[in-house]
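At this stage, I put together a protein sequence along with its fold in token form, as given directly below:
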Amino acid sequence: MHEPPATLTRRHLLLLALPAACSRDDPQAALEATVQRLQDALEARDSAAVLSLLDRGAVVQGEPGREWARRTMTLVFLRYPNVRIVAPVRRSTVDPTAPHLGLTEAQVLLVGAQGLLPERVEPYAVRLRWQREDGQWRLLGLEWS
């Protein structure tokens, strides 16, 4: 016996919705999406969007992060209007023992500040520490060398 078309449609919709429902609370996917939002906001020179991703207690290279980030973005965005951030290698992980903590390690090149070539030949090694609170990842710490 064949099911009526309406029943098939509801069943198909349910099957299509299951992966979305399951991935909604995927901390790894959420962390990777947040890292991409950070990179997009930096490239768009959207200081407000960048600051919205910083935790209240964020620390950048040992300095209180929010004020430092605001000042630095203002300076860099004005001085280098064409700078792009290229991260050819980027890996984010959620701590399996503390799933509210995450880490992103990346190799980052700044391109276009004075020309088309990177400002330095070696990429910066960047470490971003994240904390997830109320389902949102916030940048807790940033270091580079």
